[in-house]
Amino acid sequence: MSDLLTIDGAHGEGGGQILRTALSLSLITARPVRIANIRSGRPKSGLRPQHLSAVRAAAVVAGAMVTGDYLGSGEITSSPAHAAQSGEYTLDVATAARQGSAGAVTLMLQTLLVPLALARGASSVVLLGGTHVPWSPPFDSILNAYLPLLRAMGLRVDATLIRWGWYPVGQGRIVCSIGGRAGSDPIADGRPQAVSVELRGALKRIDGRAVVANLPEHIAQRMADEASRGLSELNVPVDLSQERVEAACAGAGLFLNAHYERATASFSALGRRGKPAEAVAAEAMRELKEHHASRAAVDLHLADQLLLPLAVASGPSTFTAARTTRHLITNAWTIEQFGAAKISIEASTPIRVRVHPRNPASAY
Length: 364
Description:
About 30% of the residues lie in helices and about 25% in strands. By secondary structure, the chain is α/β, with parallel strands linked by helices. β3 and β4 (about 75-80) form a beta hairpin. The relative contact order is 0.12.
């Protein structure tokens, strides 16, 4: 393992994104990686169920030898036998947790999605766990903001929510189809297309849904009504549906999409016991309005998530975001440790992020 790369998981914000990005790039390049001080910046450091599931999934798709793959582990080594290979995969957070868990399956998906999209042949990934849980992108954001940008880069990806999974029980189900590479694809040379997401254009409409699980319908109605009133000042059509769904435990959330001429941004807020429906709506609206005022094309949560696919694109890409975050800086640092891309952040208003891929297409 002469080319073993060691990544300090305590760098920057010290969260799970370092682990996920390092695993993804290891899967793409087949380079062995050692990640130390995993999630040392979190109250519960080390591997949690969703992180352990991602580590073990990486081992499966790349035939990797892994050490340190246990709950609470602060260090892992993953040595892929090859780059990620297409196939049919089922990942259940509960298996890693050895009990029920609401570990975020959307974060697990982000670990595997780009590596499998660069593999030859189609893949199907079934994820079981938390689909709409705190401190992670909800499925709605993945579906409405992240996946459309990947498709704009030429990646053939889609996802379907089969069953909702809320904190603390989880048991949700997502099915993701990933087209992979073929001779006639835009990414046939091994890279997605570069994109520019700098100018968003005018706001055209806002839509979304207010959802409750195992709770009275009036809670969803109150979230939708409050948001519709608060968003009316933006002077665009607002269309919010109300849904009551069945799940393994109670849950509630408001999921908003701001559709601009050239970009879509997604915002959300989750309910909890003692948090009024109106407070949930206010939280989601505040994020949307702050983004709108910033004139940025990419919302803050999506900004750091975009760095990985752009780092393996066919050429330089740019996007604008409201401001620099520790997540953005930390993820940029992790990618640069692999030498995959040079990432620069211009201190403008809004900030402009430039991603310059470095590795030759043959590396993928």
